[in-house]
Design a protein that fits this description.
With 194 residues, the protein is α/β, with parallel strands linked by helices. The chain is built from 8 helices and 5 strands.
C-alpha cells in the first residue's frame, strides 16, 4: 500500500508521519518524503528559496525529484511488499505547481497531471489534513513563497479539485484542531486501513 499525507503547509503532515513511524501499526514500512534528500530534492529546495525561480522550470525540478523517488524508494519498497508512507507526493505537485502556473496554462493542474500520468504511481490512500490558508501560513511561518496565505488559498482550491475527482482515495481530517487530536485521528484512520 502507498499511503500519502497531503495538506497545506502548516497542516501537521510531518508530525503525523512521525507519529505513524513511532507506532508499530504498519510493521516494516518505508517512511519517505518529497522533496527527497537526494540532489534532486536539494535542487528543489534551492528553487523554493529563489523568489525569482521560473515556475515551469521549478515544476520540472519537482518532477525529476518525484521520478527518482519512485525509482529509488517507492517502487522497490512496494515490490518488497512493504507499505510506503510519504510525507507529500504527486498531489502536492498538482496542487502547488498548479497554483504557480495558472498564468501560463488554462488548466494548470491538468497540465501537471498529464506530465505525470504515463509513469507515476498513484497513492492507494491519501490522508488530507485540512486547514484554512491563514492558519497554514501562520503555523508554517510563511518562510518561503509557497507559504503565504494568498498562495495557499489557490493551493487549497486545487486540493479540493483533487478530492472531488477521487473521493474514495482521500480521507479528510480537520487539521485546525490541536495536533494531539489530529495525530489521534490519523492513527485511527490508519488502524482502520490495516
Amino acid at each position: 500500500m502507498l499511503l500519502t499525507l497531503e495538506g497545506l503547509d502548516g497542516s501537521g503532515k510531518t508530525s503525523c508521519v512521525e507519529t505513524l513511524r513511532e507506532t508499530d501499526l504498519l510493521g516494516d514500512a518505508t517512511f519517505t518524503r518529497e522533496p527527497t534528500t537526494s540532489w534532486y530534492g536539494e535542487a528543489v529546495r534551492r528553487s523554493v528559496a529563489d523568489a525569482e525561480a521560473d515556475p515551469l522550470a521549478e515544476l520540472f525540478l519537482y518532477t525529476a525529484d518525484h521520478a527518482a523517488h519512485l525509482a529509488r524508494t517507492v517502487r522497490p519498497a512496494l515490490d518488497r511488499g512493504e507499505t510506503v508512507v510519504s510525507d507529500r507526493y504527486s498531489d502536492s505537485r498538482y496542487a502547488y505547481q498548479g497554483a504557480t502556473l495558472t498564468n501560463r496554462f488554462e488548466d494548470a493542474v491538468g497540465f501537471v497531471q498529464e506530465i505525470h500520468r504515463p509513469w507515476t504511481r498513484s497513492p492507494d490512500v491519501t490522508i488530507y489534513l485540512d486547514i484554512d490558508p491563514e492558519t497554514g501560513a501562520r503555523r508554517s511561518g510563511a518562510t518561503n513563497k509557497f507559504e503565504t496565505a494568498t498562495h495557499l488559498k489557490q493551493v487549497q482550491e486545487n486540493y479540493e479539485r483533487l478530492l472531488a475527482a477521487e473521493p474514495d482515495r482521500f480521507v479528510r481530517i480537520d487539521a485546525s484542531r490541536s495536533i494531539e487530536t489530529v495525530r489521534a485521528d490519523v492513527l485511527s484512520t490508519v488502524e482502520e486501513l490495516v
